[in-house]
Amino acid sequence: MSQSQPVNRRLFLQNTSLLAAAGAVAPLWIPSSRTLADDAKSPNARLRLGCIGTGDRWKAVGPQAMKFATCVAVCDVDANHAAEGKQIAASNNEKNGQKADIDVYEDYQKILERKDIDVVTIVTPDHWHSKIAIEAMQAGKDIYCEKPLTLTINEGKQIVKVLKETNRVFQVGTQQRTEMGRNFLRAIAMIRDGRIGTVKKVTCAIGGVKPSGVIPVGSVPTGLNWDKWLGQAPLVDYRAGKNEQSTNNRYPASRCHYEFRWWYEYSGGKMTDWGAHHVDIASWAIGMDKTGPTSVSGKGQHPVELKDGVPTRNDEYNVASKFDVTVMCPNDVVMGIVDDLSDDQKKLCGLVNKEGKLEGGNGILFEGTDGVFHVSRGKLSGQAFEALKDKPLGEDAMEKVYGGKLPESHMANFFECIGTRKNPISDVFSHHRAMTVCHLANIAIRLDRKINWDSVAEMITGDDAAAAWMGREQRQGYEINVAI
């Protein structure tokens, strides 16, 4: 790389900062008829991108990032994913008028060591997010990381500490804050406009998990570094079963690709998979994104027996298949986290199709003193929403929620903030608070008892055994070495 390129990239960032300062009403966008992608057409101005994790989800995230940056390296512990990632990156670079040699790595450290790489995407299994993100910040990279950002509460505290130390720009992939037809922004705008009066209850319906049954030990697929894929998690046999056992017919039941979500060793089940989206929006709506709950309690059904919260077998999915959690929030608001809404709740908010049958309740149900409504990725429903036809929200209602002009996409917001050096809309701090709720919920259902929480000290109180679940043992060589 020529010596002029880093200088030009710095000028690019300075120029985007000036553009934002010149006309911005708030610091989260660049007010211009041109898009950020248009302003980054010059090969010398474009940022250099490294992609860590190039599996299923990255096929959406990576190409989005390449609208704004030129990919120069991909990394994956599965050589098949890495090879496909290189092809996808090359195609998208060409599509965006860019040419670059794309290096392929198995070890993510090789990307972090490169001084010519400005930005990284992290789209790995959940249990790798925190360690890679922390080391990327320490290496001076700006970061786009998929959710859930953390596996434990302590990982969130570690990330927050390092972010404050390094001042990097860090966007979390909770796209409901910007995209999905902006349904969720509209929902928060309705609440702030008093459309249902004072919110008393909010219920997040996030879906359950189909048990897999026993998954046999299998041969590690050619090209997969199983030891490195496991990372901080315990060293166990690779298992793979049949597609009909899985939750996604593109993948067989396994401990690995896509299906890692249903093992406590690598994720938190639906509680952290969909909870990272809906609990985040619910917390934002009720003003709990800067604080936290006072207590969390509930029940969960697990496909395998737990002993002191630990699965007694490792041969099938072990996260909760069903659950009903109660979160006590500030201002006497009660948050429920459930696998599905009750029939009465569905009727209450009008989740009935044209044939008169009840629909699935995935989404968020808000109940206030003066009304109710339900929001999902597909639509809003309920009497309070219907009332918008006669009394619409103000034209700037959603912009007030967002904090400025709405961005063209979640990824655009991230790259705009690289220019302004402001926090993106899905910032680490609010995400950590939302994930804390999800982690507390999992602790409560795994230990089958109420968990009391001090949101100022960020500690479980009055229960040393439960407090130990704020972190977990990490396999030697894969520890996260940040004192908190």
Strand order of the largest sheet: 15-14-13-7-12-11-8-16-17
Question: Rg, please?
Answer: 22 Å
Strand elements, count: 17
Number of helical segments? Answer: 17
Could you describe the 3D structure shown?
The structure is a single chain. This protein has 484 residues and is α/β, with parallel strands linked by helices. The protein folds into two domains: 4-179 and 406-427, Rossmann fold (3-Layer(aba) Sandwich); 181-397 and 430-467, Dihydrodipicolinate Reductase, domain 2 (2-Layer Sandwich). It has helices spanning 4-23, 36-39, 58-65, 79-95, 109-112, 126-138, 153-166, 183-192, 226-230, 270-273, 275-285, 343-348, 383-386, 397-402, 410-420, 428-447, 464-467, and strands at 47-52, 69-75, 103-105, 119-122, 142-145, 170-172, 199-205, 295-301, 306-307, 310-311, 322-328, 334-338, 363-368, 371-375, 380-381, 451-454, 459-461. The strands form three sheets. It has a nine-stranded mixed sheet. The longest helix has 20 residues, at 4-23. It is globular. The two termini are 39 Å apart. Residues 1-8 and 14-34 have low confidence and may be disordered.
Can you summarize this structure?
By secondary structure, this protein is an alpha/beta fold.
Task: Using brief descriptors, characterize the structure shown.
Rossmann fold; 17 strands; 17 helices; disordered N terminus; alpha/beta; globular; Dihydrodipicolinate Reductase, domain 2; six-stranded parallel sheet; 484 residues
